[in-house]
């Protein structure tokens, strides 16, 4: 059972990590991962570097060549599995995607890759969908770690997938279909526009 003191510690941890989370989000927005075409090299390097810097175990699950050929995809498709903890209890996956839709710059008031902050809002391609989720999941995991509230028996993994914007077969579909990701619980992308 989580006590009021634990929740207060967690809230403090979130507050302490807020600037770090915004900085990480700005880095991601400034790192294009537009799909199509789906060139993920730069965003993969950023994610690996960040998570390995936290001491997390990072694995990259590549979609196999035969699947890429079948789907007529021109670039490799990496899926990042960043393990915050590995326990012998349940596995909890926090899933978001690393790709964004293409940009029509004429429709933008702000530079789509500028990650500008104006009046408390961050603007840029992927700021909400789905790099914002990646930053939020990262913040949550870091806050749980730093507050000591992450159960030792839980496996907590950030499952950051390719190709959601074009169907996800080489991304989440591949991870689950191949057995590379087998979670007991998952938090996945969701939106509420209406």
Major sheet attributes: 5 strands, mixed
Radius of gyration, CA atoms, in whole angstroms: 17 Å
What topology, given as strand order, has the largest sheet?
1-2-6-3-7
What is the overall silhouette? flat
Q: Which regions contain 5 or more consecutive residues with pLDDT less than 50?
A: none
Query: What is the string of helix and strand elements?
Result: HHEHEEEEHEHE
| Total DSSP E strands | 7
Strand content: 15-25%
Count of alpha and pi helical runs: 5
Distance between the termini: 35 Å
Tell me, rounded to a whole number, the average pLDDT.
Answer: 95
State the secondary-structure class. Answer: alpha/beta
Level of helix content?
25-40%
Would you give an account of this structure?
36% of the residues lie in helices and 19% in strands. It is built from five helices and seven strands; from the N terminus they run ααβαββββαβαβ. The strands form two sheets. It has a five-stranded mixed β-sheet with strand order 1-2-6-3-7, with helices on one face. The protein has a two-stranded antiparallel ribbon with strand order 4-5.
